[in-house]
Amino acid sequence: MAGGDRDLTGRRILLGVAGGIAAYKVVEVARRLTRLGASVHVAMTHSASRFVGSLTFETLTRNKVLTDVMELDAASEIVHVELGKRVDLIVIAPATANLIARLAHGLAEDPITVTALASPAPLLIIPAMDHHMWANAATQANVETLRERGAHILLPVRGELASGEVGWGRMQEPEAIVEAVCAQFGPGPLAGRKILVTAGGTREPIDPVRYIGNHSSGKMGLAVAQEAARRGADVTLLYGAISVPLSAGIKAEHTPTAADMAAAVQRIAKDCDALVMAAAVADYRPASIASQKIKKGTDLTLQLTSTTDILSSIAGLPLIKVGFAAETEQLLSAARDKLRRKQLDLIVANDVTAEGSGFGSNTNQVTILGRDGSMEELPLLTKTEVAARILDRVQELFDERS
Ligand code: PMT
Question: Rounded to the nearest whole angstrom, what is the distance from the C-alpha of residue 213 to the centroid of ligand 1?
Fold first, then answer.
């Protein structure tokens, strides 16, 4: 991955900032990683915050900075444990001699080491220190210990140090750090695959100010798009009305109505390897759209007409097709019927009446049904985890076909 090809969309990175003058350069690292699409979470030691304020990182990354090992989140979970579970990579820059020593010995007494100890994510360590400290046998032994355990070390370079002396110990420049981060991720299991994802709800206009819509927030579709991008796919997202921000780095096109979404799917799907239709598409639209706002008067009857069934309209294309079935009753039989009628490879049966499931929530309870008769019933999971399970199945289908 080099130059303009770098894309960290959907990657979750913990950036541990320890107390060294090079911390000011790490502000630029946080900015660049965020611009490449990564979700960057900063953890700082107390001494780091004497060099750079947490507000700087919070403003750039749009994520709260972890400065307190005892911090609890809104669900009363321990933040460093939850963060440690969720990140894909831990980058420590600047890694001071002290921090490297603590990491090597499993001491967990600051927001960085405590999160690193609680996390299975790989470690990328970017040392920065005085040249005598770097050359010291204790530091070299600690670095070796971490390397033997699988940590990657981006070695310091020779240059001017905080003391004014010149020697080995100067932290690598932000560009080199970003390159090293990108290199950690490699191409991903869906590299080379083009995946089209739809999200959100369509809105069918009645007149210039009113529409028929639904409660979709776009969270489920966006989670699929982000997870596919995280696995290296070339993702295009078509979205209707959504209430969550788009991810920088994912190609996205606004398709407000069912007709707009149908036209875009028909145009793009023929060049794609898979389509995941998580959007809540209207089945009906007003037969005609009033050119002026309809005046309040007596009761009004709207005549509705069917929209194009998007999935059915591309049934002849060879790409893998995944639909959702949002149901309030007879979940599995209704989903099986849609799987067959729309000629899908997979359908995600979604009980939208279950607690914590369906429209607007951060979690979802689904059963994935396959054309081959398979049935995978999942517990209540976050939408990101549901997206991962769906893409595991899509990957299996790619493997079977190749
Ligand atoms: O966006 P969130 O708030 O996160 O909520 C997620 C969700 C509940 C919207 C999502 O999980 C979900 O279930 N999406 C499908 C909603 C839906 O339209 O279901 P359906 O059973 O009516 O349609 C079946 C399938 O056909 C869907 O994949 C749908 O996108 C597709 N469809 C529907 C109508 C139409 N005209 N053309 C279609 O292709």
Answer: 12
**CATH superfamily of this structure's domain 3-183:** Flavin prenyltransferase-like (3.40.50.1950)
Cβ < 6 A, ligand 1 pocket: 216-221, 258, 277-281, 283, 307, 309-311, 323-326, 338, 350, 352, 358-360, 364
Per-residue pLDDT for the chain (402 aa), expressed as one digit of tens each? 333 356 888 899 999 999 999 999 999 999 999 999 999 999 999 999 999 999 999 999 999 999 988 887 766 677 777 888 889 999 999 999 999 999 999 999 899 999 999 999 999 999 999 999 999 999 999 999 999 899 999 999 998 898 888 889 999 999 999 989 998 988 888 999 999 999 999 999 999 999 999 999 999 999 999 889 878 899 999 999 999 988 767 899 999 999 999 999 999 999 999 999 999 999 999 999 999 999 998 899 999 999 999 999 999 999 999 999 999 999 999 999 999 999 999 999 999 999 999 999 999 999 999 999 999 999 998 898 899 899 999 999 999 998
Nearest CA to ligand 1 atom 34: 281
Q: Tokens 């033997």 identify what position?
A: 148
What CA–CA distance (Å, rounded) separates 383 from 291?
A: 39
| Other C-beta atoms lying within 10 Å of the C-beta of residue 224 | 30
Domains 3-183 and 194-401 share a fold: yes
- In this structure, the strands spanning 320-327 and 346-351 are parallel
Whether 214 is catalytic is yes
| SS3 at position 274 | strand
Best of 196, 243, 276, 281 for a ligand 1 pocket test (most atoms within 8 Å of beta carbon): 281
Domain spanning 194-401: CATH superfamily:
CoaB-like (3.40.50.10300)
* Atom of ligand 1 minimally distant from the CA of 242: 1
Domains of the chain, residue spans: 3-183, 194-401
Ligand 1 nearest atom to the CA of residue 327, by list position: 21
Of 142, 214, 362, 364, the catalytic one is: 214
How many other CB atoms are found less than 10 A from the CB of residue 183?
A: 14
Give Cα separations from 198 to 26, 103, 299, 382, 398 (angstroms). 36, 43, 36, 18, 20
